[in-house]
Amino acid sequence: MTGWFNKANVYFETVPHGGRFAFVATNSIAQRIPVAALFRSLFESGWRIRFAHQTFAWSSEAPEAAAVHCVITGFDRGAPHEKTRPVLFTYSSLKAPPEALPVDHINAYLVKGPDVFINARTRLRSTILPEVRYGSKPADGGYLIVEAEDYARFAADPIAAKYLRPFRMGRELVRGLDRWSLWMADDDFDPQDIQKSSLLRERVQKCSVFRSKSKKKKTRESASVSHLFQEIRQPLAPYVAIPRVVTEARRFYTAAHLSQQVIAGDKVYTAIDTDGFLFAVISSSMFITWQKPVGGRSKSDVSFSNKVVWNALPLPEVSDKERTAIIAAGQGVMEARAEQPGVSLADMYNPLAMAPSLLKAHSILDRAIDRAFDAKKALETNEERLALLFKRYQEMTATDS
Description:
Elements: H1 2-11, E1 19-26, H2 34-44, E2 48-58, E3 68-77, E4 87-90, E5 99-102, E6 133-134, E7 145-146, H3 148-156, E8 164-168, H4 170-175, E9 180-182, H5 192-196, H6 198-212, H7 217-221, E10 239-243, E11 245-246, E12 256-258, E13 263-264, E14 268-271, H8 277-282, H9 285-294, E15 296-298, E16 301-303, H10 306-310, H11 320-338, H12 345-348, H13 356-372, H14 382-397
C-alpha cells in the first residue's frame, strides 16, 4: 500500500506548483514501523497532511466481505496550504459518522501533534521502568494445553496432575477463563513420568509429530524435546501479565498480577514488578493514550509491543515522593478491583459500566502519573496527555544521533 504514496511523491517531482493527493489505505500505515518508513520521506519532500480520517470500518456489499479497517490521508504541498488549517476526522466507533476537528497540525500517527517518529528499541528509553518480555511459546499444536473439558481426566491421573499448571493467554487473562498447561520445565520433572502416564505419553508424542511436520526449522528441531514449550520465558517470581491485544473501547489497559505458578503464554507479556510501579504506569490513562496511536492494531483492537510502545515510553525520572504516590495509587486500583470478587477484567472494565470506586481509583492514579510526566496543571483530556507525551518524547530524543 505504501508504494502508492511513493508513486504520488515521485509523480509530483515534475509538477512545479505543488499539488494534492489522497489515498484510502488500511490503518496499518499509521502504526509501528511503517510510520517512519512512509511519512518521513513525504514530510522531507515538503508534503503536509491536509486532512485525515482516523480508523473506520470499510463497508462492502460483497457477500462474506472481510472486515477491513481503513484510514484516509490527504496531502498538499505549496504556498496556498498555509492559509488552510488541517482537518482531523475522528470516529466515536468504527461505524459512526466522522466528526471534523480543525487542528494546527496532523502528524504521522494521524493525531494532533508534532512530527515525531517512534522507533523500535531493544532497550528502555526510560531508566526507571522494568523490562517487559514475551510469555512462553508452546508451538505444540495444542497438545501441551489442557482445556476445561479435559481437566478432570488429567487431574485424576496422579502423574499427569503433577505437571498441571494454570495457563493464561490474553483471552483467559482478560475474560477470567480457565485453561491449563502440561508444564515439565521445572527442576522436579522426572523424564520417566512420560512413560508412566498414558495421558502424558499421548500428548507428548502428538506434539512431537506436530512439530516434526512444521515448515519452520526451529519448530522441527524442537520435536526432540516435545515435552517442553518451544520457547520458555516463565518468570520465577510473581509478575504482571500484560495482554498483547485489548479491545479499542477499553479506557485503561487491563494488566493483572499473577503468581509464578501461572504459566504465561505468548499472547501476553510479562514483567517483574516488585513494588507495583509498573502496574500503576500501565494502568494509567497516560499509558493507553500513548499505546493507541503508537502501537499496532489487530483490526481496530489495541496491540501492545514491548519494543515500540513500552521501550519508547518517554517517562522522565521521578522523585521518591512521586514514585511513592504512584505506587499507592496503583494499589488503590487493586483494592477497588478486589471489591468485585469473581468479576472478570473484561466486565470490570466495561466502558459503559465501570464501578464508581474503580473509576475514582483510576482518577487518583491518573493525577499521580500526569504529575510524573511534569504536567503543569490537571489534565482533563487524553488529547492533552498525547500532546504532553509527544513533547516529552521530543525532549528525550533531542540528543539522539
